[in-house]
Amino acid sequence: MPIFRAWIVACVAAIAIAAQPAPIYKDATKSIDARVEDLVGRMTLEEKFWQLFMLPGSLDDPAHDYSHGVFGLQIRDAPSARSHAERINAIQRYFVERTRLGIPIIPFEEVLHGVLMAGATTFPQSIALAATWDLELMRRVSAAAALEARSRGIRQALSPVVNIADDVRWGRVEETYGEDPYLSAEMGRAFVESFERAGIVATPKHFVANVGEGGRDSYPIGHSVRTLMERFFPPFDVAIREAGARSVMTAYNSVDGAPATQNPWLLNQVLKQDWGFGGFVISDAAATGGATVLHMTEPNTPVAAQHAFAAGLDVVFQSSYGQQRPYLDAVQRGLVPMAVVDAALARVLRVKFALGLFEQPYVDVERAAADNGRPEHLALAREAARAAIVLLRNDRGVLPLARLITSIAVIGQDAEEARLGGYSGPGVASVSIVDAVRRAVGAGKVQFAPGPGRVVRELDVVAGDRLSAVADNGETVRGLKGEYFDNNRLDGTPRLVRIDQRPDFRWTLNSPGRGIPFDWYSVRWTGTITAPPERVTRIAVEGNDGFRLYLDDALVIDNWVKRSFSRREAAVSWRPGSAHRIRLEYFESTGNARLRLLWDAGIDPGEAERRIAEAVDAARGRDAAIVVAGVEEGEFRDRASLALPGRQEELIRRVAATGTPTIVVLIGGSAITMSPWIDHVAAVVDAWYPGEQGGPALADVIFGDANPAGRLPITFPVSEGQLPLSYNHKPTGRGDDYVDLTGMALFPFGHGLSYTTFAYSDLRIDRAEMGAGESTTVRCTVTNTGTREGDEVVQLYVRDVLASVAQPIIALKGFRRVHLKPGQSTEVAFAVGPRELRLLDANLNWVVEPGAFRLMVGASSKDIRLR
Length: 867
What we know:
With 867 residues, the protein is α+β, with helices and mostly antiparallel strands. 27% of the residues lie in helices and 22% in strands. The longest helix is centred in the N-terminal third of the chain and has 18 residues, at 2-19.
C-alpha cells in the first residue's frame, strides 16, 4: 500500500508539472521583448554574467564549469565540416538540455574570407575582394561563405574588418577593404547583408581606427572628431544602420586617451545613442584587461570591467577559460550595477531569440558536409581571384603569354606555397601557382626554382634543448635558470627565480613576472649551452640594449647601456657536443623589452646565393620567366620597410639580367615599393592573397584566358618616406613634393591595366542644377576600343569646388564594373544626391552646401577621362 500511494503521488505530481504552461521565454508565439523580460527575471547573477562572456572553448576539460551557461564559444579542432557541425551540435545540446535554463550559445568564428576551419572554401583575402571593385561578386562570395558557416552551426562571424587602411605599413591591411571610406563601406555592406540574411550575426571591427602613427597596429589614436566622422566612421555607420549588423567589436587601441573598450563616447554616445545601435558590443580578445597592463588607465581588471560595461561594452571576449574570474568578481561585488548588467544581457538575449536558437539550436550535419567546399564555391573562388588580379605594369606588352610557349621558368617560394593570407583555413583544393602553370602549358615546359625565399636566415634562436640548468631540487633541467631582480642593477636577492625554456623574450608594457616592475628590473640567466652536431661560428644577443654575455666566465659581448635596439655578435669555435658555461644578463629601465639569444648553428651562409644562382640558371634561355615574390606581414606584424624582404629584389634583377622576359607576380596584402627593380622587368602583376584557387586564376590571366581588370584599393608609394599617402587628402598649404622625391604615388588608388583599351565619351547630367534634398544622374558612354573582351571599372569622383570647410581634392562616390566585347559600348550611370555631396560643417553637422561640384569620371583617381 505505501508503494502504491507513493506511485499515485508521483503520477499526480508529474501530471501537475505537465499541466503547467511553458515559461514565456520558451514560447515562440510571444514577443521577443516579453521573452527577454521573462528570462532575465529567472536568472541568477552568475547566469547573467556568463551570458556576457565569450571565449574559445569546448566541453573537453571537466575542470571548465559551464553549468551557468555562456554567451558563446569558438569551437575548433574539427577535421571536416561534418565533424565541426557534429561538435557544435553536441556542445549546443549540453547547454540546451543540461543547464538550468537551457539557454543556447552563439557559436562564433572568424569568416574573413571563408570559414577559418578545415573543409571550408577559402576565397581571396579581403583586400583582394576589394580589388575586384565588384559588389555583385562580393555579394556572391560572402553569401557562399555565409552558407558554409551557417551549415556548421556558426551564428556569429567576427568579420568584416572595415577599418580604413590609410597607412600601408600596417600588417593588417590585407584584412581590410582599403584606404577609401566609400569603397570600404560598400564592400562592408555587401558582406554584412549576406551574413545577416543567412541568420549569422555580422561583427564589423575594430571600432575604431585600429592603425596609428607609423602604420603600427593598435597604436593610440588622436584623430579629431571631424576626422573620425569624415573618414573612419562611415563604413561602420553603413554596416550598422543600413546593412543591419547586430554586433560590433571594439579596437585594442585608445581613442583620444581612452581605450576603445572603455570609451563611453564611442560606445554609448556614437553607437547606441547617435546611431541607435540595438545589437551588442563585444571587446576584441583580451582587450578589456588591456587597460590595466597596456594603456595603464585602470588600476586592476575588475575596475576595468566596471568602466567598460559603464561605457557601453556588452560582452567581454577573452582568450581562455579562467580569465573570467576578475570580470565575474566585478559583477559579484556590485562594481557593475545590476541595471547595466540587465541592459547588456537584454541586448544579447534579443539577438539569441531573433536568431531562432531557442527553437532550432541544431543543424543538419549532412548539410554541412554538402554545403562546404562545393564545386560551385571553388569555381566562385577562382572567378573572384581572377577578378581581383591587378595588372600594374605591362609596358612591353609581354602579357598575355601564348599557351604555345615552348619553355618557361617559374621562380619563387610563393609560387609553390600557395599562401592564403591571415585568418585563413587550409582550404579544400588549394592549387599552387607553379602547379597551375604546369597544368596550363604542360609540366615538361616548366622549370621551377624556389629562389632564396622571403627570409634569409642568418641566425636562429638557440634551441631550448641545447640549454640546461640545475633546478632548486638539484635536478638538471632543460632551459636556463633566470633570476629576476626588482631593480636594474642585479642587486640583492632575486625577487623571482624560475627556469626559462629558451631565451626569446618580448615584454611590451607588461612585467616579466609577478612582483617585477615592468619598467625597472634586471635578469641573470645561467646554465650550460651544449654545441650541436652542426658547425657553430657565431653567437649573438639581440635586444633593446642593456645586455651582456659571458661564455665560460669570459665576457664576450658587452652592451651594458640603454640606448636603442641592436644585435651584437661574438665568434666561437666549439667542438660538436662540447658544453660551455653561459651567463646572460639584461637590465630594463623604461619598459618595452626584447631579448633573444642567437647562433648560426646549422645555417649555411652560402645557401641563399646558390638558390639565386639556380633561379638564374632556370631562367636563362627560356621564353619567359615568372618570378613570384611575397611579403611578410599580418596581425601585429607591421612593416617598417615596404621593399620585398630577404634577397628577392636581387633575385628579380639577376633573373631579368639574363635577357629573358620577366614577369613579377606579387603575393601580399598591401603595398610594395619597386624602384630598385621595376624598370628591369617586362610586367608586374599583383595577385594579393588570391585564395585556394589563386594559382589557376593567375594562370588564366597570364595566358590570356581571362583579361585582368582588378583595381587598387590602396595607394602604392614610391618610398616609405611618403607615408601616409592617400589619394583623397585635403588641399595642402603649400605643395606635395619633397626636395628629393615626388609627392605622387608609384601606382595611384583605382589603378589597374587591361589587355584591351576603353574610351570614355558623352558625359551628361540629367539635371545640372538641383534643389536641397534632390538627386540627379550622371551618365557616360564607355566603349571597348581594343581587340579583346574585358572588364572596365568606371569610377566617379567628386570635388566640392568651394566649401566652408576644407574638403578632399578628389573623393570616390561611385563605381561600376562593366564587361564589354570588342567594339561594344554601354551607358554607365551614377546617382548623385545628398549622400555624395554632403560635408561635415563647422558645427559637425552633415549638410549639403549650395554651390558648384565637379564630377569626374575615369579609370583611376589619376586617370580622369571626363569631367
